[in-house]
Specification:
Elements lengths: L6 H66 L2 H8 L3 H9 L10 E6 L4 E5 L3 H7 L3 H7 L4 E7 L2 E12 L5 E13 H11 L2 E6 L2 E5 L6 H5 L8 E5 L2 E9 L8 E7 L1 H33 L1
Antiparallel strand pairs: 1-2, 1-5, 3-4, 4-5, 6-7, 6-10, 8-9, 9-10
Helix pairs in contact: 1-8, 2-3
C-alpha cells in the first residue's frame, strides 16, 4: 500500500504542503519588507547627500560673497579705480588672488561695465560676464549670484558694487568673484557624501564623477523631479536632481547613488531566507515521514 493511499500518508502530504505554503508566504512577506526598507534607506541616503551638496555649495557662496564685499570696500582698489587706468586696477586686483585660493575668476568693471581687470584662468568668462545682467544689477547697487556654463563646468559668480560713500553713494564699478562647479569639485563632493555628482546646464552635462560617455543618460534627468532610476554601465542608479538656486538658469546638480550595494544586500538576505525555508521544510518533511512510517 502506498503512502498516499493511507490516511496517515495523506495527512503527511497535506502537512508537508502546508509547511511549504507557509514558508513561501513568510518568505514573500519578509522579502517584500526587506526590499521596501532597502529602497527607503537608499532614498534617505540620497536625500542626505543632496542636502550636503547644497550646504557645501551654499557655504562656499557665502564665503565668496563676504570676501567680494571686503575686496570691493578696499580703499586701495577704490583709489586704483579712480585712475580709470586698467593696468593700475589690474596690478591692484592681482594681490587679492591668494585671498581666494580656489577662485577661478576675479573681475572688475568700471561704472560703464567696461572690463578693468581679470585674474585666474577665466578671462574669457569674465569678459562674457561683463555683458550679463549681474554687472548691470551691481551697477544699480544690487548684489547678484549668477551661473555661466563653461566647457569644463558651471561658473558660479558673486557680483557686488564698488561704492564710494560720500553724501550720495557713488558706484565706481563692480567686482565679481567666481568658482567652478567642475570635475574636481564634484570629486570632493563624492568623497564627502559617498554619492556620484554631476553638474548640468542647458540640457548638457558639464562636470561629473562618472565616465563622460554616460553624459547623454545623465542629461535626460536634468529636467526631472524627485528620485528616478538610470541604467549606467549595467548598474542601476537612483538619481536626485537638485536645481541650483539661481532662478531661470536651468542649472542642476544631479546626485547619484548606486543600487549595487542595496541589491547585493537584498539578494544575500533573500538567499539566507530561501535556504532557511528549504531546511525548515526538509526537516518538517523528515519528521513527518518518520512518523508516517
Amino acid at each position: 500500500m502506498t503512502m498516499i493511499s493511507s490516511l496517515r500518508g495523506r495527512i503527511f502530504l497535506a502537512s508537508a504542503l502546508l509547511a511549504v505554503l507557509t514558508c513561501g508566504v513568510a518568505l514573500f512577506v519578509v522579502n517584500r519588507r526587506v526590499t521596501n526598507e532597502g529602497e527607503r534607506s537608499l532614498q534617505r541616503e540620497i536625500l542626505v547627500s543632496g542636502a550636503i551638496v547644497d550646504q557645501l555649495r551654499t557655504s562656499r557662496t557665502e564665503t565668496y560673497t563676504i570676501t567680494a564685499r571686503l575686496i570691493a570696500d578696499s580703499p586701495t582698489l577704490k583709489a586704483a579705480m579712480s585712475t580709470d587706468d586698467p593696468p593700475t586696477v589690474q596690478g591692484n586686483i592681482q594681490k587679492y588672488g591668494p585671498l581666494l585660493n580656489s577662485a577661478n575668476l576675479l573681475l572688475v568693471t568700471d561704472a560703464k561695465g567696461r572690463v578693468m581687470a581679470t585674474t585666474g584662468d577665466a578671462s574669457a568668462a569674465g569678459r562674457l560676464l561683463a555683458g550679463q545682467p549681474a554687472v548691470k544689477n551691481a551697477l544699480a547697487g544690487r548684489e547678484t549670484i549668477s551661473l555661466l556654463p563653461r566647457p569644463n563646468g558651471i561658473l558660479q559668480v558673486v557680483t557686488v558694487p564698488i561704492s564710494l560713500f560720500l553724501t550720495q553713494p557713488q558706484i565706481l564699478g563692480t567686482l565679481s568673484a567666481g568658482f567652478l562647479l567642475d570635475d574636481r569639485l564634484a570629486a570632493q563632493l563624492k568623497e564627502n557624501t559617498g554619492s556620484d555628482v554631476a553638474f548640468g546646464m542647458d540640457g548638457q552635462i558639464l562636470a561629473t564623477t562618472l565616465p563622460r560617455d554616460d553624459d547623454p543618460v545623465l542629461a535626460a534627468h536634468l529636467a526631472t523631479t524627485g528620485v528616478s532610476t538610470a541604467a549606467i554601465h549595467g548598474d542601476q542608479y537612483a538619481v536626485l536632481p537638485r536645481p541650483l538656486e539661481t532662478a531661470g538658469t536651468g542649472a542642476v546638480a544631479l546626485i547619484l547613488r548606486s543600487r549595487a550595494d542595496l541589491l547585493q544586500s537584498v539578494q544575500a538576505i533573500q538567499t539566507g531566507l530561501a535556504v532557511t525555508a528549504v531546511v525548515a521544510v526538509l526537516l518538517a518533511t523528515l519528521l513527518r515521514l518518520d512518523e508516517a512510517w
